[in-house]
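Narrative of accomplishments. A recurring question from our advisory board has been how the design workflow behaves on a single, concrete structure rather than in aggregate. To address it, we present the structure tokens for one chain from the evaluation set, followed by the sequence designed for it. No filtering or post-editing was applied between the two.
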């Protein structure tokens, strides 16, 4: 069913009884041409582009819970392409361009809202680093604007500009950055993939891999039986090291918890996304009015989808340092998701040394913004066995060869640097 003003009007006039389900909850078949493990944004986007761009429709997405139950449904929804290194900028800018046309492309309202991402700076050195990053972005054709203190003050008068330790000197603005509704991104990709014949199989946990005599992966063992496939792609975010272990792969990934928070609804206050440059804290405001914010990782390794109180305390303290009036707002909820932290902080989209097994991982805490390009590039790799030109740097062997893409020089544990 196509969504349009006409379908909305027709359904409104007939009591909303004729809407059809957005996507099919399929039962697994015994075999597919390709399987994508993980029904988060990346897995579903991969399936969508495999079907749409490469004509591969005999494929399944296998999800152990319900689609969007992982990080795709738990993140703070920020999208941006304000990177600095050559390996990263073209990929994230491609993602931004896909975001800009996404809703028309998959005919679903993902609430993509380009209200700007502002990174604040608090020292001369930080301002110089931001100028350098902004220049690198502009050299790649990405929008970036260096703001002085007066411009930031005009945009966000509620910030604490004269904090004795962290006075705000200015900021780097990417006006095309912003937010998108995370659940809707999952549902939109699921709908688009399902419409093209992809089986979306929920409650189907992959528990092992089927191998032939040569060692190649030829399918998966699941909680719903064996399923054969010529190609298997992993897009399981925080569970990557677990799935890798099942295949005998030791990966350069650590799993950590990242928490997010939402407050009671306020009148419109925060114009876009704001990040604190002197601590790990970022904030935006949802369309419902809640302040949505987050900060640093919980410092220990974990596969639990819940965090701990020291990180809550530190993140709330950072918020208070940046905008003291936030202390008067009540927190409604907070939750955690499992991050697949790579050792250089950049992702992996590559074949593994095992024939038939492909890897999409290492998104750390920034993979939501990458969802469209990650799906696009992983689909390209799985369909053609060669990397997409924007993702050639995201090789698995860079950790052995030393060709790291260390954008922030902080690797898997930014909280220790
Ligand atoms: C609190 C928080 C805030 C964040 N904020 C941002 C942000 O503002 N901007 C940004 O760009 N990124 C952000 N991120 C990161 C982003 O959410 C992730 O990098 C991204 O969602 C990961 O890709 P995914 O959507 O495919 O992952 P997921 O949604 O986690 O998908 C992986 C799926 O694999 C499934 N799975 C795991 N094991 C198996 C198995 N054995 N068999 C079958 N299925 C399995 C899981 O159930 C899960 O549904 C944030 C993350 C969190 C937790």
């Amino acid at each position: 069913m196509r969504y349009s003003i006409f379908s909305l009007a027709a359904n409104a006039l007939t009591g909303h009884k004729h809407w059809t389900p957005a996507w099919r909850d399929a039962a697994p078949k015994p075999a597919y041409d390709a399987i994508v493990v993980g029904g988060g944004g990346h897995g579903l986007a991969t399936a969508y582009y495999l079907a749409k761009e490469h004509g591969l429709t005999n494929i399944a997405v296998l999800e152990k819970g319900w689609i969007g139950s992982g990080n795709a449904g738990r993140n703070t929804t920020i999208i941006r392409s304000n990177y600095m290194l050559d390996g990263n900028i073209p990929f994230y800018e491609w993602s931004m361009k896909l975001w800009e046309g996404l809703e028309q492309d998959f005919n679903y309202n993902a609430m993509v809202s380009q209200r700007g991402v502002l990174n604040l700076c608090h020292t001369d050195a930080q301002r110089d680093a931001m100028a350098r990053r902004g220049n690198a972005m502009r050299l790649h054709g990405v929008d970036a604007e260096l703001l002085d203190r007066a411009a930031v003050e005009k945009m966000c008068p509620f910030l604490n500009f004269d904090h004795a330790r962290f006075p705000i000197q200015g900021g780097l603005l990417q006006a095309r950055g912003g937010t998108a509704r995370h659940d809707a991104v999952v549902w939109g990709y699921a709908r688009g993939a399902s419409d093209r014949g992809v089986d979306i199989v929920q409650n189907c946990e992959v528990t092992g891999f089927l191998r032939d005599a040569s060692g190649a992966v030829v399918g998966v063992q699941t909680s719903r039986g064996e399923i054969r496939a010529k190609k298997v792609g992993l897009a399981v975010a925080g569970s990557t090291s677990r799935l890798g272990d099942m295949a005998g792969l030791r990966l350069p990934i650590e799993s950590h918890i990242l928490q997010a928070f939402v407050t009671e609804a306020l009148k419109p206050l925060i114009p876009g996304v704001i990040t604190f440059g002197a601590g790990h804290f970022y904030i935006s405001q949802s369309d419902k009015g809640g302040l949505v914010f987050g900060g640093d990782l919980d410092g220990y390794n974990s596969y639990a989808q819940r965090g701990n109180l020291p990180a809550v305390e530190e993140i709330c303290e950072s918020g208070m340092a940046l905008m003291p009036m936030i202390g008067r707002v009540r927190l409604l909820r907070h939750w955690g998701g499992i991050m697949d932290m790579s050792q250089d902080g950049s992702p992996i989209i590559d074949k593994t040394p095992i024939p038939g097994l492909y890897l999409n991982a290492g998104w750390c805490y920034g993979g939501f913004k990458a969802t469209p390009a990650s799906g696009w590039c992983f689909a390209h790799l799985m369909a053609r066995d060669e990397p997409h030109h924007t993702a050639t740097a995201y090789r698995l062997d860079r950790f052995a060869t030393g060709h790291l893409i260390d954008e922030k020089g902080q690797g898997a544990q930014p909280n220790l640097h």
